[in-house]
Write a structure and sequence with these properties.
single chain; 306 residues; alpha/beta; Rossmann fold; nine-stranded mixed β-sheet; three-stranded antiparallel β-sheet; 33% helix
Length: 306
Amino acid sequence: MGASRICPACGMQHAVAKGEAVWPEVWACGACDHVPPRLDGIVAFAPDLADTLTGFDPKSFSTLSKSEDGHYWFEPRNRLITALIGRYFPTALRYLEIGCGTGFVLRGVHEALPNAALVASEIHPSGLAHARRRLADSASVQFVQMDARQIPAREAFDLVGAYDVIEHIEEDERVLAELHAALVPGGGAVIAVPQHPFLWSQADELGHHVRRYKRGELDAKMRTVGFEILFSGSYTALLLPLMAASRVHRSRPEQLEAMLKREFALAPWVNAVLRAVLEGEVTLTLAGMRWPAGGSRIVVGRKPAA
């Protein structure tokens, strides 16, 4: 039936007209009259999970929002993600981001796709509060509270993204299948995850990760649910030895908060040097270099055209 929204109460699918929002601000199911509740003005599809310790500690959003701009790891990764979007899906007009957090990547995608209608989803309204402030000047962004394991839309988006999100979710293949189902035929997905189980550390435990992915694991899982892979590459390859060394030491429980702050509060000159290294790495990646290992994996997939 083409693009459709799904009633979370009865499961009925309703056609989405061309140019219409996938999830209108005011909407009631024509079959059961269900009206999705709102949390702080945001449509909520999974209100029972809002700001619970589901996959992530909502208290961490405040630290993230203060640290991402200018940070040596976040800024080059944004450039890589948005460049891949521009390379493979430059004409996308409907974009859905899963687990948008504070909106840092979303802002970059908005700049890369200025004509697209963007939907930012997050299970935690506290994260959406930061994202709304970050994109307060954009009328083309809608925010929804949602569980990625049950996306209430089918064949509705040209592009979906999930950046360091699905490693927090036990049922990652279910999320990938939902992303695939939410895409139009020929639509794409950009997924980023932490890589290499040998790098598992207290940083992963603090981040409520379920896993770090083996090389090729994400590609295989995306193929299983129907994606064809257009791009697969490592990120943070040049800094991998430094990253591995930093994860050998285990801190005592009372030192964990200080450890987390050190991850973000680097001396400016250290941050500048590390950022220059990763900016160079991204430039080489976009020029065709493929790194055999790295702290993260970024995969671009496409849903085959009908």
